[in-house]
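Minutes, methods subgroup
Present: GH (chair), OT, SY

1. OT presented the first of two proteins processed in the latest run. Sequence and structure tokens recorded below as shown on screen.
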Amino acid sequence: MVKKIALLGATGSIGGSCFKVVAEQRDHLSISLAAAHSNYSKLCPLALEFGIPTLVFTGIDDTSLQASIRREFPTLRIYFGKDSLLSLLLNEDYKIALNAIGGSNGIEATFAVLSRGKDLALANKESLVMGGHLVKKLQGNAKILPVDSEHSAIFQALGKHPLSEVEKLIITASGGAFRRTPLSDFPAITPQMALKHPNWDMGAKVTLDSATMFNKALEVMEAHWLFDLPYERIDAIIHPQSIIHSMVQYVDGSILAQMSVPDMSLPILYALSFPERWDSEIVQTDLYRLPDLSFEPIAKERYPLFHLGLEVARQGGILPTVMNAAVEAAMKLFLEQKIRFTDIPSLVYRTLSQTMQITDPDLKTILYTNETSYQLTLGYVSH
């Protein structure tokens, strides 16, 4: 039977890898619904090529442009706006949703999918970072299948082992673009420099979060909710080659790792094929051509956002939402060259220091706090 997918974030890097997987696995997969922010010139032709009947663009508000798009692609059912996406997720025919919406914008889609009892292939870290306690309550019998390469690796290495046999999870990190940059050069880092990841082809947000290693703090939070382990049993280390995607250390001293050349197609394929494994030629790893593999700790002076993120994770409540929003806003200011790369941690800390803790926030509170924290951080810099 062909498995129908709702693909959210279809024009981003994860979406592109998903299309590659679906093209190879047409006997197993089809896309029944695809969503993007505004890139209709990319997604509409893909919809015709892959036979996707329904599209939604959440970021196109111009009614004249909406009418023009519908005239240009009359055979497609095209909707606009976030509310349309949430309604479609509650009503359209699909087996599993791949949520690859970037940043905090993806959390409501996660809630819509799970509230309907559908399986979720999750590439949106923020859903668990901001609302992990709510997601776990909402999950029910639906499966949440990790798409981040690190969590996919842990998921595969865990298999059916009980958590009582697990000593700790070990999340690997590339170290980002500035692993070897002298700290004295950090004030001169430009957005163009920060957007060049050494190993992965990712969107701007993930690439920037990798440069600061904030993404690893997010992944630690995500792992906490995905695998029901306390933060004391989740570690992160730098592995510059990005071949080992993460590891599980067991109580007997054994460490199981999942490895491959870096390509997001593989964790996407595994999430969509689970509990099976399907034949694929997309990602092939030649052991003889791999570089030497090395590991090193995550230095606090080089990656302060990672260590601040761990402190925030342990405190929980509303603070992860506040920090994530502050980082998103600070990154925007950095990309607009209104602040320096080295200003980002201080702006984030400033927002956190002005926050009153809420230990068990509901979704409405999370969304409101996310927006107010974002605007508060932007407001530190005159425009």
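2. SY then presented the second protein from the same run.
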Amino acid sequence: MSEPTSDQSLFKPGDRLSPDSIPEPLPLLERPGNLPAHLFLHGGKAPFSCKILQFNDEQVSTFNVRTSEDLQEFLPSQSLMWLQFRGLGNLECLKRCLSLLSLDQSVIDILITFPQKSRVTSTNNCVLAVLHEFSLASDPTHLISTQYNLVLTNRMLITIQENPQRSFNDLEAWLNVKTNHLKEIDLDNLFHFVIDDILDSYLPMLESMSVFLDDLEERALLKPKPSILNKAYQVRFNHRVTRRQLWPLRNELIIFLRQSQRLLGPVARDGLHDMADHVNTLLEIGDSIRLQLNSITEAYMASTGNVMNQIIKTLTIVSTIFAPLTFIAGIYGMNFENMPELKWKYGYIYSLVLMTLIALFQAYFLWKRGWFQDLSGRSRKFGS
């Protein structure tokens, strides 16, 4: 990230941003997906913690702080810092920490709003991003989400995440490897690296969803059951939830990249362009999943239609065979006196033989016409 010019100096406590440049929070009426299972143990709010990565001339120093007073000791330093706030168990402590970072109150309101719509935007002095990381539980119909709020300033990258178990170990390891080249580390590059790392979670989720849908489609063809359609509807709902969080990112990234944001250098802007392509790729994969969902519905309807046709055909065969037999039995079941066949000594045997021959002839005739062929596909073993 390039050094600020004279008119781009670091803002000081008490400086106010232009009211027109401050975006409003975009809260959601309900959470997209469910919380990770371990967060329910804390009522949905994990214990609060703060981790600081300080970039000095020759090393990356890591510190863990618990209170706003501990954080205040690091603020006079002019070193670049990455502040990782985790857990929302102590929201008041989080507010006090953010108030020490010379952020406008409107920006702080955005950072402490959970849940919130995904967005990427900027103000006069910072760049804001709100993202949701999605994953699937052991049951692919169970969607799990974690919100991340990010803000980039001249000398700080601030990340706020509600799930403390999620870490950026790969990024931190990469930073430690670059110990001899710390001057090459720019917070704007780190900003888009973090965003890209969060978006990478979508690909495994979409892949698992696609594999699960392939299995559902085969089951819908071979063993159609209402539970299959219910699972497909649940996956469709989860897909719609994730798409609603990705779609705003594409539009806002296009607008954001057209702006001249001084906090972003050329490398970071190229990275955000790649991120926009990444979002487009995720949306295209989502469209293919939507086609899979439509295919499952069509396969289920076609398969149940074939099964119903097979049932109707079976009933038709039975009715066709027994209709003439019922006719013969009905005639000789009448109680008229002038019926010569009633006096036959072997009339009962003759009638049974006649009905048997008629039934065999009709069965043979229908078999030759292919009526006994099973068209439902249920005779195949699943997975063969």
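Chair's summary of item 2: Confidence is low (pLDDT under 50) at residues 1-20, 379-384.
Next meeting: continue with the remaining queue.
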